[in-house]
Amino acid sequence: MGKRKVVIQESVAVSIAKIAWYIESKGLIATAEKFSDDAYDFISHLADNRVTHSLCKEPLRKLLGQKCVVFRKKYTVVFFESDKEITICEFIPSKLIIW
């Protein structure tokens, strides 16, 4: 299985940490850790170069050439894809995407 390099921008790491902190603030420490681990595992699986992903449906992101993948039906991972690298740009709640 071929792998591409995955570059995660700082804003993505901050977004994942904020969501995990919110879950932890509700008293679910193990769940918060599992969420964070699952999010990073999901992002690392995007590196498989046998799979190409579709463009975002939102017109502005589509125009920019960004690609979107849904994580756990609630969150969207927005990234740029090339033959050698995937750059993760955003990790946002899906309901914030307007189209």
How would you characterize this protein structure?
By secondary structure, this protein is an alpha+beta fold. Helices cover 39% and strands 25% of the residues. It contains 3 helices and 4 strands; from the N terminus they run βαααβββ. A 4-stranded mixed β-sheet has the order 1-4-3-2. Strand 2 and strand 3 (75-81) form a beta hairpin.
What keyword list fits this structure?
alpha+beta; 3 helices; 39% helix
Structure summarized in a few sentences:
By secondary structure, this protein is of the alpha+beta class. It has three helices and four strands. It has a four-stranded mixed sheet.
- Spatial order of strands in the largest sheet: 1-4-3-2
Biggest beta-sheet profile? 4 strands, mixed
Rough outline: globular
Helicity level, as a percent range?
Answer: 25-40%
Using the CA coordinates, give the radius of gyration: 14 Å
| Total helical elements | 3
Q: Estimate the mean pLDDT confidence.
A: 92
List segments where confidence is low: pLDDT < 50 over at least 5 consecutive residues.
none
| Strands, count | 4
N/C terminus separation: 35 Å
Structural class: alpha+beta
Strand content: 25-35%
Order of helices and strands: EHHHEEE
